[in-house]
Design goal:
about 325 residues; Methylamine Dehydrogenase, Chain H; 4-stranded antiparallel sheet; globular
């Protein structure tokens, strides 16, 4: 969604402060100061982590985030790479959002990048990518002519093709996707995906089904920002109003029946949240402009474990490590004693 993310400071409630002080989990700051706002994060395993962000920047760590190699993509100095999908230490795909929208791919660890997709449509704005495996992937964008844009790859991102326009999901007036963390589209199983929208209307799209979400909506700054999937029936959706970063109003909902019914937390995340990630068992984690929340009871009660701002959090695809990334080149890691 083409909006400016502004931070409006508010007061912290006593309950927030108490929940912040009664947890064992913490977030360790690993890196900051690089001139980029990071929204793309891909954790291959416990050691291999890639990030992407504004000002044409991509970063890579091969030692669990202790040291980073930063790359400014030549010819794309002003591009905002809002999402990244990495497969190993050498192969990764980055998504540049605004018109002309670009997708680039590297097979040599980021030394060189090949342009594999370009869309010059004046209204093109890509929001997120998702891959089922090393070959099959999908990218979603804001509505063009009132329809959400979708393209697919079946060869590991070497080539991309727009799906037929008649198959694009129809958007309502003022409905779009937030390119806030690369997590508004997720795989459901081996060949299906789902995505969420926000703005004037916020919905969950699963194949031909369009499910209204109970999350706050109705203005350009409200709605669902991120969805995490435990299995084909169990999802978590987070968002809120990014212009009211401390508001907990209707910012998180859970479903255990594929979206037919939704449950609100007893203690919600402590503000607007741009990303949510499933960890294991009943444990999930979420982050946003005023910090990080953690739950161990399937989202019924959330504990505020860090007050640093992060846009995105992701768990290792092959491992246990959990990383965070945000503005000012900020990168963190979940520490569980």
């Amino acid at each position: 969604m083409k909006v400016n993310h502004k931070i409006i400071f508010g007061s912290l409630t006593i309950s927030c402060l108490l929940s912040f002080s009664t947890t064992a989990q913490t977030v360790k700051l690993l890196s900051s100061g690089t001139k980029t706002s990071i929204r793309g994060l891909s954790v291959v395993d416990d050691k291999t982590v890639w990030v992407s962000g504004s000002n044409g920047m991509v970063g890579k760590s091969l030692d669990s985030g202790n040291t980073w190699k930063w790359m400014k993509i030549r010819g794309f100095d002003s591009t905002d790479f809002r999402d990244i999908e990495a497969f190993d230490a050498t192969t990764a795909i980055i998504m540049g959002v605004a018109s002309p929208a670009h997708i680039l791919r590297t097979v040599d660890g980021g030394e060189t990048w090949k342009l594999v997709y370009e869309n010059p449509h004046k209204d093109m704005f890509l929001d997120a990518m998702e891959f089922w495996n090393s070959e099959s992937g999908i990218v979603i964008g804001d509505p063009v002519d009132n329809k959400f844009f979708i393209a697919r790859t079946f060869d590991g991102g070497r080539t991309w093709k727009d799906i037929p326009p008649q198959n694009y999901p129809v958007a309502d007036s003022g409905e779009a996707c937030f390119a806030s963390s690369g997590t508004n589209i997720r795989k459901l199983d081996r060949d299906e995906a789902c995505f969420i929208s926000g703005g004037m209307r916020s919905r969950l799209f699963i194949r031909s089904k369009k499910i209204d979400l109970p999350i706050i909506q109705g203005t350009q700054s409200t709605g669902a920002n991120s969805i995490a999937v435990k299995n084909s029936k169990t999802f978590m959706v987070v968002g809120g109003d990014f212009l009211a970063k401390d508001s907990t109003q209707k910012n998180c909902f859970m479903t255990f029946d594929g979206g037919n019914s939704w449950q609100a937390p007893q203690v919600p995340p402590h503000g607007y949240r741009s990303c949510v990630e499933y960890l294991k068992g009943k444990q999930w984690i979420s982050c946003g402009l005023n910090g990080v929340d953690y739950t161990r009871d399937n989202g019924q009660t959330w504990t505020w474990i860090a007050r640093e701002s992060y846009h995105v959090c992701r768990k290792a695809r092959d491992g246990k490590a959990v990383f965070f990334a945000g503005g000012g080149g900020r990168i963190g890691k979940l520490i569980i004693p």
